[in-house]
Amino acid sequence: MLEVKNLSKYFGSIKAVNELSFRVNRGEIFGLLGPNGAGKSTTIKSILNIIKPNDGEIFFDNHPIDEKFLNNIGYLPEERGLYKKSKVIDVILYFASLKGLNSNEVISRANFWLEKLHITDLKNRKIEELSKGNQQKIQFISAVIHNPDLLILDEPFSGFDPINQQEIKNFILDFLDNGKCIILSTHQMDTAEKLCSEILLLNNGRSVLQGTLQEIKKKFGGNHIRVNFDGDENILSSFTEVISYEVYSNLIDIHLTDNISPSDFLKKLIQRVSVNHFSIIEPTLEKIFIDTIKNEKSK
């Protein structure tokens, strides 16, 4: 488990990160989200010991992160940090050696991942000769080849087509099954919504929204359902649990009072009409993100 306690980092008078605390459990993808300049990169670099925070503590499995543990972290940066004039296999071997792996072990693992990602034929090509997607595959291999317990992924799907995105997602989910801690930083809200079990939204170095995806959606979603039924929609006016409703071509969106669950309302509704469709309306993470940041700016 990764635990960040009261992390702060100042650059002169600028508070890049301000008393930030969060926890990432094993077998969990933790979404570190926020607009540009929110403090995400500073937080990540503090965990990686690239920069020293002014205050706060960082632990993994209840032990302070030290130089030795840094070899147990895998990091895929948003900016490509590959040596363009070097061969693929040499780049992988170099980054693996920085994590303390011996040559024989690295070659075996490199071949494994090159085959997994269907790029074995590229291993003697120079990085600059590869497409953006294949360069991103090399970055991914370099981040995971040492089988880290903590994996930090910053825009990991950049440059990938939908097929390769899905393939990388599957590998990430495999890491979860093996009890890894994963931090995902991305601007792709739909991806974060599908993968992350907990979200931290940063703005101006502060946590402005934090919790499980279920908790956050419940907080922002209100009590809304969508139905289609046979009969006159005006019957909804007779239900005291209905605050308001909007009628579309073949569906009706209903805003319910907080004191009734959607399932209980459905039970009452089917006693009066024949229901053909029923679903709960949840706000998307993208809408929550936009509304929260707009609200912060208006303060």
Search tags:
299 residues, alpha/beta, Rossmann fold, Alpha-Beta Plaits, 2 domains, six-stranded mixed β-sheet, four-stranded antiparallel β-sheet
Portion of residues in beta strands equals 25-35%
Count of the domains: 2
* CATH level-3 fold name of the largest domain: Rossmann fold
What composes the largest sheet?
6 strands, mixed
The CATH H-level homologous superfamily of the largest domain: P-loop containing nucleotide triphosphate hydrolases
Terminal residue distance: 35 Å
Rg measurement, Å: 24 Å
Please state how the strands of the largest beta sheet are arranged side by side.
6-7-8-3-9-10
**Helical proportion, percent range:** 25-40%
SSE string:
EEEHEEEHHHEHEHEEHEEEHEH
Indicate the overall shape.
Answer: elongated
CATH class of the largest domain: Alpha Beta
**Strand element count:** 14
Mean pLDDT over the full residue set: 93
Structural class of the helices, strands and pairings? alpha/beta
The CATH architecture classification of the largest domain is: 3-Layer(aba) Sandwich
Q: What is the overall number of helices?
A: 9
Which stretches of 5+ consecutive residues score pLDDT under 50?
none
